[in-house]
Amino acid sequence: MARRRIDAVIFDLDDTLFDCTGQLTEPARRRAAETLAAAIPDSDVSALQRLQAELADQLSSADSIREIARRHELRADVVESALAAYNRDHVEAIAPFQDTRSTLDELAARHYRLCLVTTGRPERQRRKVDLLGLRGHFSEESGSLILHDDRKVPEKDEALHRAARCFNLSPCRILSVGDKLNSEIAASKRLGMRTARLCFGRQKNQRPRTPEERPDHELNRLRDLLELLP
Ligand SMILES: [Mg+2]
Fold first, then answer.
1. CA of 96 to the centre of ligand 1 (A)
2. Does residue 1 lie in a domain region?
């Protein structure tokens, strides 16, 4: 079947443009585990860190922490402290994937329009974009950086829809790239976009559970996009 030409690419940030799981998620789980362990008698910090990772297969990071708290009947203020430890605004030194900047530069040189739609606490996500040196490609002023606060709206659909409106393009001319099947892949397909899954991060080995979680393309590394988008 002939495919329509792609004119624009929407990227996810965490585990799509940099190794968030390795550089930030595990240290964040460690901080939350330390807070939880202080409130659970005879508990083990490493075990609580591993349990968050196991629960995160099905739950969000925040809900994994809440689930552990529920099992141990922890007070609400302990849960809040653990969530704050996980999500602190301070972001450690982080670096993009080796091929991130060269891939973005080449796509821009090929005249693809680029947008970043990222989920999380806005201050923290903004800081990541700065630290990763991605301001040259993505900014809120130009509409090419859209921050999706999932505490207000859990699903990513509206933020992705806003990106499509900024491009003023039909969704079928947009390729959406991300690592999460149940987040950007499903949401982008619901909106009629083409999708590419980067096989990385916590959902790396996960199989699609519904038709809308099935991506159109799978990428082992970001620069594989350059073959997909001539
Ligand atoms: Mg991601």
1. 13
2. no
Cβ contact 35:82 at 8 Å: yes
| Residue 197 φ/ψ, nearest 5 degrees | -100, 130
Surrounding residues of ion ligand 1, Cβ less than 5 A: 12, 14-15, 179
Query: Which pTM does this prediction carry?
Result: 0.83
Residue range 154-200, pLDDT digits in tens: 899 999 999 999 888 899 999 999 999 988 999 999 999 999 999 98
Are both 82 and 177 inside the same structural domain? Answer: no
Give the CATH number, domain containing residue 112: 3.40.50.1000
Domain span holding position 166: 8-18+94-228
**Residue 220 dihedral angles phi and psi, to the nearest 5°:** -85, -30
All residue ranges of the chain with pLDDT < 70 are 1-4
pLDDT score for 204? 81
Domain end: 65, 86, 107, which one? 86
**Contact (Cβ atoms closer than 8 angstroms) between residue 115 and residue 163:** yes
Does 3 map to a domain? no
Alpha-carbon distance of 11 to 179, in angstroms, equals 10
Taking CA atoms, 106 is separated from 121, 184, 217, in Å, by: 30, 23, 19
